[in-house]
Design brief:
Number of strands: 6
Distance between the termini: 64 Å
Strand order of the largest sheet: 3-2-1-4-5-6
CATH topology of the largest domain: Rossmann fold
Radius of gyration: 20 Å
Shape: globular
Number of domains: 2
Length: 354
């Protein structure tokens, strides 16, 4: 079964095409004809050109936006690596599904949908707004054994890809990665240490607000996990299966699925970036479809973004997760496309060129 699933995943990856150069060139010509010095809008212009290449349209639109919050539990919480107990995961999933979390507030401001997906919460969560896509009831304790089987990891990746496909069918133009899972910074640190080659002292941060003593304990737990599981850094599926998380795998799949459907993905913070690294290792061409949003306060996020080759435009000292930083990035994407579509040219406005 695992070989069949991996063959399906390979089909998804093969379906990812390059950015449309003709649309990017046309967008560049348009930007250079607008009533401003060339390049004076900096990263907004680069973002507009990238969105043109992703969509294949010289004047792209990002009116229909959605943040996908993947929720899952982590067995490594048994090791005392978080300031919050594991039962917060289902509680917060219900809060998000009910519209009461920070991501909901910011999504309403951005005119975006919020979809909460249960890919691995350790308890039964019943709420009409939670999509049930449970792969297993939380991961195992990665400090003692593999977090999940290889087959479960591939199923989680495919689940994320299928959700991206479904949302694209509904007309979503732009996706954001969000997550909820107590313990997921521990799994993300392990993933970025292996796939990004980032030293654990840099990769391991305070997560939910733990003390420095607990942070050092957390780092030791990750060191033990890497020793116990010996993940193969040349095999991203092996890495995410042994020391990752279900929501990390599902977000990696969401990126792959979105890229296949020529949809941009706004990346949130540390956990989302770890998922993006998994996606990039599986499908290097998918990185062209990624939009960075902010630099998290989590210490490993900067090195992780460097590994991805992404430069975040926002620095707000956030470390909440849920997709909050990515939703703020929606405003920049919409600004970039509106500049392209709505700003007057020198000829339209009768303004003399330099």
């Amino acid at each position: 079964m695992s070989e069949e699933l991996e063959s399906r995943l390979a089909d998804w990856i093969r379906g990812i095409g390059p950015l449309q150069e003709e649309a990017m060139q046309e967008a560049t010509v348009r930007l250079n004809s607008l009533t401003k010095p060339q390049g004076s809008l900096g990263q907004l212009e680069a973002l507009a050109i990238q969105l043109a290449g992703i969509s294949g349209e010289a004047y792209p639109s990002v009116r229909n936006k959605a943040v996908v919050v993947m929720a899952a539990d982590h067995g490594v919480c048994e090791e005392g690596i978080s300031a919050y107990p594991a039962e917060v995961t289902p509680q917060m999933a219900i809060n998000i599904a009910s519209g009461g979390a920070a991501v909901n507030v910011l999504a309403r401001l951005a005119g975006a949908e919020v979809h909460c997906i249960d890919v691995g919460i350790a308890t039964e969560v019943l709420h009409p707004n939670i999509w049930s896509r449970k792969i297993r009831w939380g991961t195992a304790n990665l400090a003692r054994e593999a977090a999940m089987t290889r087959e479960e990891a591939v199923r989680a990746i495919l689940t994320g890809a299928e959700i991206a496909d479904e949302l694209a069918d509904r007309g979503i133009d732009l996706l954001a990665t969000g997550e909820m899972g107590i313990g997921n910074t521990t799994a993300s640190s392990a993933v970025c240490a292996v796939l990004g080659g980032i030293p654990l002292i840099q990769a391991t941060g305070v997560g939910t607000g733990i003390t420095e003593d607990v942070r050092r304990h957390k780092q030791a737990v990750i060191e033990r996990a890497l020793a116990v599981n010996a993940p193969d850094r040349e095999d991203p599926i092996d890495v995410v299966a042994k020391v990752g998380g279900l929501e990390i795998a599902a977000l990696a799949g969401l990126i792959i699925g979105a890229a296949r459907r020529r949809r941009a993905v706004m990346i949130d913070g540390f956990i989302s970036s770890a998922a993006a690294l998994v996606a990039m290792r599986l499908a290097p061409q998918a990185v062209s479809y990624l939009l960075p949003s902010h630099l998290s306060q989590e210490r490993g996020h900067g090195p992780l973004l460097e590994a991805l080759g992404l430069e975040p435009p926002l620095r707000l000292e956030m470390r909440l997760g849920e997709g909050t930083g990515a939703v703020l990035g929606f405003h920049l994407a919409e600004a970039a496309t509106r500049i392209l579509r709505e700003m007057a040219t020198f000829e339209d406005a009768g303004v003399s060129r330099a």
